[in-house]
Amino acid sequence: MLKTRIIQNEPTGAGRSPSIIEVDGLSKDYGSVRAVDRLSFSVSAGTITGFLGANGSGKTTTLRALLGLVAPTEGNCRIDGRRYRDLRRPLSTVGSMLEATTHPARTARNHLAMLAAEAGASRSRVGSLLELVELDAAADRRVGGFSLGMRQRLGLAGALMGDPAVLVLDEPANGLDPEGIRWLREFLRGLAAEGRTILLSSHVLAEVAQTVDDVVVIKAGRLVTQAPLDTLLAAHASHQVRVRTAQPDVLVTALAAAGFTGIAGPDGAVVVTGCPPEQIGRLALEHGLVLSEITDETPSLEDTFLALTTQSEEIR
Amino acid sequence: MITLIHSQVLGLRTLRSTYGVLLGAVAAVLVMVLADLGTNLGVAYVEPVEVREPVMITVGVIVTIIVCLYAASGVAGDYRYGTITQRLLAAPRRSRLLMASLATYTAFAIVVGAAAMGLALAIAQPLVAAEDLTLGLTPVIVVSAIATVPLFAIVGVSIGTICRSQAAAVLVIVGWFPAERLLGLALGDWVAYLPYGLINQLLGLDGATLGRGTAVLCLSGYAAVSALLAAAVLARRDVS
Ligand SMILES: Nc1ncnc2c1ncn2[C@@H]1O[C@H](COP(=O)(O)OP(=O)(O)O)[C@@H](O)[C@H]1O
Ligand SMILES: [Mg+2]
C-alpha cells in the first residue's frame, strides 16, 4: 500500500502523479435512458477527488460500472490498470461504499464479520474498525435501527476492511448534519494522509469543498470539467460588486482607467467585475465620490457549482 | 471460494430466520409424524411402505419445501436489502458467488435433512415397534429422502437468483404444485418426470413407477439446469 501522500504541484502534465482510476469513454444505457454518456476522467494516486453532479446525473451508475456491478454499454473503467473483476484481491485493492448494502436484521459487528471473512481480514479488525468509526457502543445493535449517519460510518468501516489503497464512496456525506460532515472531512483527510486515493461523489459541492483536492463535474451523464478545485473556483468566482453613487459615470471612467469593468445599470447601480470591494472604495475616495451602497455579490461556492451543473451544453 | 462460503455461513448464522427454519422443520416433523402415526398406525398403515410414509413425506416433501423456500428467499433477500452489492464486490466473478451460495445452502440442506430424518425416526421407531410393525428401512431409502432436501435447495437458490424478488420466488415454488397438477392432466404418466412428481418416485411412495436411480438422475438434471440458468442470468445482470 502507498504510505506517502503524493504532493501535486501541477494541475496537468508531466509532474502529475500516475492515475489509479481511469474511466474511459464510459456510456451506459438503461433502455432508452442514457445514464452515462461517453464519460472519461481519471483520478491521481494519493488525491481526494470529488465526483460532482446533480441528482440523476449518472454518478452512481458510473461508480457501479467502475466496480463491475453494471456492465458498460460502451467504454471501460480501470483501477490500477485492471478491470475490477480482474483484481486478484478486490476488497484489499478498492474499498467501496454504496447505498444500502447491509441487512437490517444483522448487527453492525456481524455485518463487518461477514466482510472480514470475504476480505480475508482477521476478526480483530472488526473491533478496531468499529472503534475507528466510533460505533463500538452500537456494535451489537441491529443495523435497521441505525441513523443515516451511523450507517454511513458503518459503510466506511466496511470499505476499510481490506485495508485498500483506493476508496470509492458514493455520497458519503448524504444525510449528515454539519457535525457529521466535519467528522467525515477529518476522517477522509486522515485516510488521504496515509497515502490512500479517494473518489467520492456528492450532489452538494459545499459538503465536500473542504475535503477534495480535485473535482470531476458531470451533468446529464457527460463530463463538464475535471480540474483541481482551486483552479475551478478561481476560474468561476471572480469578484462581482454592486456599487451605488450619485455619479455613476465618473465611477465607470475611473474604473476603466484602473483596468476594471463597471457597467451602469438603469437603476443607477454599477456592477463591477474582477475588482475587490476595498479597491473600489479607494478609487471612489480618490475621485471624491460618495458611495451609498457597496455590496459584494461574488458567487458562492454553491452558485458556482449550480452554474456548472445546470449550464447548457456550450461548455463542452 | 472458502472465504466466500465462510462469509455466507456467517450470514446464515447471524440471522434469526435461520433458527426459525430449523424450529419449523422440527415442528413439522413432530406434528406430522406423531399425528399421522398416532391415528393410522396398525389401522390404515400395515405394510412397511405405508408405515414409513409419514416419515418419508415429512423429510422428503415438507422439510424439502421449507428449505427450498428458505434458500430462495435468502438469495432473493440479497436483492431486497441490497446486500447483493456487497457480495459481488467481494466476488466480482459472479459464477463463484453462485457456487458459494449453492455450496452453502446444499450443506445447510444436508444437515437439516439428516437431522429431520434422525428426529423422525427417533419418534416413529418406538411407536412402530410397539405395534409389532416395521418401517422396513434400508440405507438407500433413508439417503434418498435426505437427498431430496439438498436437490431442492439447489433449485431454491437458482429460483431466488433468477427471480430477485422473495415474493416471486415463493410464488414460483408454491405455485408449481398446482401447475404440475394441471400439467399432469395433459401429460398423463409423464407427470412422474416433473420435479414434484419425481419426489414421489425418489421416496418410493405408494404408486411409484420409476426407479430411485432414474428419479435421482432426473432431479439432479433439473437442479443442474436451474443452476446453469441462474448463472447465465446472474452473469448479465446490472446490479444498480
Ligand atoms: N437501474 C436503472 N434502470 C433505469 N434507469 C436507471 C437505473 N439506474 C439509474 N437510472 C437512471 O440513470 C440516470 C442516472 O442515475 P444515477 O446514476 O443514479 O445518478 P446519480 O447517482 O448522479 O443521482 C437517472 O436518470 C436514473 O433515473
Ligand atoms: Mg446516486
Helix and strand layout, with pairings?
The complex is a heterodimer of chains A (316) and B (240).
Chain A: E1 19-30, E2 33-44, E3 48-52, H1 59-66, E4 74-79, H2 90-93, E5 94-97, H3 108-119, H4 123-132, H5 148-159, E6 166-169, H6 178-193, E7 197-202, H7 205-208, E8 214-219, E9 222-228, H8 229-236, E10 240-245, H9 248-257, E11 261-264, E12 269-273, H10 277-286, E13 291-296, H11 301-310
Parallel strand pairs in A: 3-7, 3-8, 5-6, 6-7
Antiparallel strand pairs in A: 1-2, 1-4, 8-9, 10-12, 10-13, 11-12
Helix pairs in contact in A: 3-4
Chain B: H1 2-13, H2 16-40, H3 48-51, H4 53-80, H5 83-90, H6 94-130, H7 139-163, H8 166-187, H9 195-203, H10 212-236
Helix pairs in contact in B: 1-6, 2-4, 2-6, 4-5, 4-6, 4-7, 4-8, 6-7, 6-10, 7-8, 7-10, 9-10
Bound molecules: adenosine-5'-diphosphate and magnesium ion.
Any overview of this molecule?
The complex is a heterodimer of chains A (316) and B (240). Chain A has 11 helices and 13 strands. The two termini of chain A are 37 Å apart. Chain A folds into 2 domains: 209 residues, P-loop containing nucleotide triphosphate hydrolases (Rossmann fold), CATH 3.40.50.300; 61 residues, Alpha-Beta Plaits. Chain A has 316 residues and is an alpha/beta fold. The longest helix of chain A is centred in the middle third of the chain and has 16 residues. The N terminus and C terminus of chain A are likely disordered. In chain A, strands 5-6-7-3-8-9 form a 6-stranded mixed sheet, with helices on both faces. A 4-stranded antiparallel sheet of chain A has the order 11-12-10-13, covered by helices on one side. Chain B has 240 residues and is mostly helical. Chain B has one domain. Chain B is globular and about 60 Å long. The mean pLDDT of chain B is 92. The chains are: A alpha/beta (316), B mainly alpha (240). Chains A and B meet through helix 1 and helix 3 of A and helix 1 and helix 5 of B. The complex binds adenosine-5'-diphosphate (ADP) and magnesium ion (MG).
